[in-house]
Sequence to fold (191 residues):
Amino acid sequence: MLSTAFIAQLETQVQALSATVDGQLRPLPSQELNYKPTPTAWSVLECLEHLNRYSRFYNPELARALQSAPAGAPHEVGFSWLGRKSYDTVKPENHKLQKTVKHMNPAGSQLTAEVVEEFLRHQQQLLQLLAAARTANLNRKAVRVEFFRLLKLRLGEALQFVVAHEQRHVQQALRAAQTAQARGQEAVLVV
Fold:
């Protein structure tokens, strides 16, 4: 895919994520935001906090990579084996459960609605990074992998990984919210 179309596609996906979280998750009451569908499942806030922890690493890492990236003309975006594997692991269509590294696991954290606000701020930062990436060489290996910082992803691969990872966990958060709302409606019917 040509780099201009690739960035435009990611921008559209990030805008959709922001709109979904702002419109469907932000208005929820605290008890629904913190509701865990099962004892081991994440609540809405835990899903978003997990993404916030990744954004705290990847947004500055992407900004650093973009500062040193040479400008270039539109080009075909290429993918390495590591980039394809990283994307395949987190893409929303992959329903296989993945273990996260311990420091990225928010289970059991005391979380408030500020988690949602932080997520939305990170999305605005990501949109700014995508705008800066429009003229960058997306095939340049420049972004360290969070869990093993000696490995590097290409700039385009890292951007795609971040957005797909967010899509995956926002879908998970929506499922948790639906379960919480269904549970609340059942309680009203029983009373």
The first strand starts at residue 141 and ends at 145. The helical segments are 3-25, 30-33, 44-68, 81-90, 114-133, 155-190. The beta strands are 141-145, 148-154.
